[in-house]
UniProtKB/TrEMBL annotation:
Gene3D superfamilies: Cytochrome P450 (1.10.630.10). One of its GO terms (biological process) is cholesterol catabolic process. It comes from Nocardia speluncae. This is Cytochrome P450. It holds the Pfam family p450.
Amino acid sequence: MTAASLEPVTFDPYDYVFHEDPYPTYARLRAEAPLYYNAQLDFYALSRHTDVTNGFRLATQLSNANGVSLDPAAWGPDAHRTMSFLAMDDPRHMRMRRLVFKGFTPKRVADMEARIHELTVEYLVPALERGEFDWIEEVAGKLPMDVISEMMGVPAADRAEIRRMADMVMHREDGVTDVPDSAIEASLNLVVYYANMVAERREHPTDDLTSALLDAEIDGDSLTDDEIIGFMFLMVVAGNETTTKLLGNALYWASRNPEQYTKVADDPERVSDWVEETLRYDTSSQMVARTATEDLEYHGKVIPAGAKVLLLIGSANRDAEVFDDGDSFDLDRVEKGNLASFGAGVHFCLGAHLARLEATVALREFASRVKSYRVREDGIERVHSSNVRGFAKLPITVEVR
Ligand code: HEM
């Protein structure tokens, strides 16, 4: 037993030291306090793979209706928070999810592949020519939001402005959990923009996602304009920063483990192993919150009804019960398919296939053009957030083929 482990484990998701490397704390939580209670911040946390993945499936006992973030008011104006089905329980959630799925289909996502490729090349090639660039600024920070915009039917001329607004919606000063005025203003502007687009498509439908959502119908029931705007907002909140950070984390960990990068540089078709291992090893969405609707017993203790409960995704993904030598970044790993990264059960990430497609296309393009690269450690900047894990800045120097 080490000296550190004589002290009871403490876990504060806002602590900067914790952000540097959360995994030793997770390991202690799994071993010493599988049901952890933080009295100061008044939340419970589950860290073992079985508890986290089962927790996702206990939708009746662990509710989403009060939001899925530990932060008091994570998404700004309340209207859009209540509209989004991530923060609803069934049957309201299921009704809306099924209607959205009529428009946001796997085929519509798969059809984006060629455009994702074109956008990646458009951003990546000029950056590679310079030899030194910030991966987040030039590629990872642009691609996910631009892909969402293209799917919705946002004109190319507006894409950059939409990206700027979306970034402002998500931006928080380090250490501040309250929503800043700039984020509220950006949310309102984005909502006005989407409202105009929905009204316009109602008059003049096209073949884009917005028109498909307007068209979606199940047994005579369809989405209201507000619900469509709420879903667009949810895509910005759930699908933009998470995918940007996934792309950043992939490059960061492959540069720290160059023998792993060699595997994809030698055979870019192995890129999906790189994507899956990054999603496991250091996922961009580290935890989600729930509210207990009844007393729940875990490990001989009780979570009282009404309590906030965190499901620690990042911890579940390193649990030795499921992942052999989970602390090593290994593209040859055989235990695939047990990831907690996209949740489970009724709220399973609706955009998982889109996130995987974007990451696969962008990283394959990178690996097939870049022989080797180095992250400039002195220039990296990590975001400090209770749940988002990844980099705001990731400068790299590349050696192209
Ligand atoms: C839900 C992670 C990308 C749309 C979720 C959940 C997780 C997650 C963990 C479940 C949340 C919960 O149960 O409380 C991620 C990660 C991503 C990613 C790690 C990228 C690496 C995307 C993308 C989109 C998207 C690209 C769409 C454009 C959604 C939606 C939900 C969701 C709509 C709510 C589903 C529901 O409540 O039924 N995501 N996501 N996500 N995600 Fe993602």
